[in-house]
Amino acid sequence: MAIVEINGTILSQLLHDCTVNNAEGILFGEVVKSLQDEITDDDINERKEDIRIHITKILTCESYYSFSDRTGQVKKNKLQSLLDNKEKKDIIGWFTCRHNSTSRMSFREQALHLKFAEYARKDLDNFLFGLVIPSATDDSDVNSCNFDFRVKKKDYFHSLPLRIINLGQRNNQKKVEQYIPRYVKSTSPLITNSNSVFNEVSSEYHTSLKDLSKMQEEHIMNLNSTLHKEFVDLCNNAANQQLLVAQLEKELKALGICVENGIGSQEDDEKTHDNDRIELKELQHSPRLHRRHNLSSEELLIQLNDEPQIKKKTSLLENVDLSDIEDNDFVCS
User: Fold this and answer.
1) pTM > 0.85
2) Domains of the chain (ranges plus CATH)?
């Protein structure tokens, strides 16, 4: 049975592109076949065919129906615009991503697999179909991503074992040197943003990563440490911004309380002044003052100003219209 081999960077890129939304893409690589001799108990040599399918790069399309329609037919014009002649020769399969779905292939995917293998002129037994299914728990606390690579044998699709190739393994050094990093268009806002931290940091290491002779483990580690440092700085800035927002909200809340207290005290003062006006008018028309003082209205105001308990209300009498008060009102009958 064949074995699928993929680089760790390519696998992480595949999973990252599939975590945003439903997508489809193309797998590039090569199929290597070799014969191995096996010695049995009877000292009889038997040859076994070893098939390894190496995935060297992927191409994630912008939409779900970029190179096919809903019936499973291949759009040759779209594929020609996406690929060139060299990339067409390196096609070894395709993949699809369905969020919160089942692992069963649909009729459209089965039909598209046959049409795509026919378009790429590849052997159907070694033409890969990748299925990625991101899912979340009921409380959305944990996200998981199940992925599987399959080939069609006769009338059924069989899952193939997967082997991840690390950059530091010496036995895979030749295979690693054949890997060429390629930046594909992603739907993630972190990648598509031209001013993102990832693009700024990766542009510094783009030259060293592009040159295959310098593509060593130290460049990958330097890129990882730089990205980690930038991530820590962004976290600290976000924390400081949250503290500033909390402080501003606290000040606004205190200011709102002060405004409410000021409006309440102003209303109390207005009520007190209204009560004072009513009392002063009652004093002006009081019969006791008429009997005690046979005075005119102007003289009565002077007398009221001399009273200690009324003296503080003198300013309010200035607003009273005295023309409506006749002198006869202050004389006892």
Assistant:
1) no
2) 3-192 (3.40.140.10), 254-330 (no CATH)
